[in-house]
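Researcher: I'd like a structural prediction for the single chain below. Treat it as a standalone chain; there are no partners to consider.
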Amino acid sequence: MPTTDSSIINEKILRFLEIHGPSLPVHLAREVGMDMIFTSAFLSELLAHQKIKTSHMRVGTSPVYFLPGQEEGLEKFSEYIKGKEHEALNLLKKNKFLIDSEQEPAIRVALRAIKDFAKILEKNEILVWRYFTAKEEESLSEEKKEVQKEILEKEEIHKKEAGIIEKKKKSKQ
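Model: Treating it as a single chain, here is the predicted structure.
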């Protein structure tokens, strides 16, 4: 196959992804008018040159192909995630951030399996899961709220302890 033909096919694939966003190989094969084996070879070449990316998630046995920067478009394929992974995805999507140690074991495992949607952060030796569209800065503001809450709780405990000590001193006199 001449070089010009392969570059035309590569351009068709890239243009299709640019217009339609993340796609399955079967849709790309239909677009370029080739069977799946040849289309897969072109996709592998584009992957090797880092012009496209693949998802960790599988739809059937196929990954989803997309251009760098189109990660948010993977959400349209989230319906193919089933079981505990789907439950973990919905929980993470709702809360944006989840502290790993506070989750039940099955959810913790599921979060590790949905790599396209769950990004891990380590804050003060605590593992925090971030929904892939949530910004890391949001985690910092959430963390500040938690720290302020802990400080207020500790101050309340100290006040109560101080009150108890005062009562004991007065009762001894």
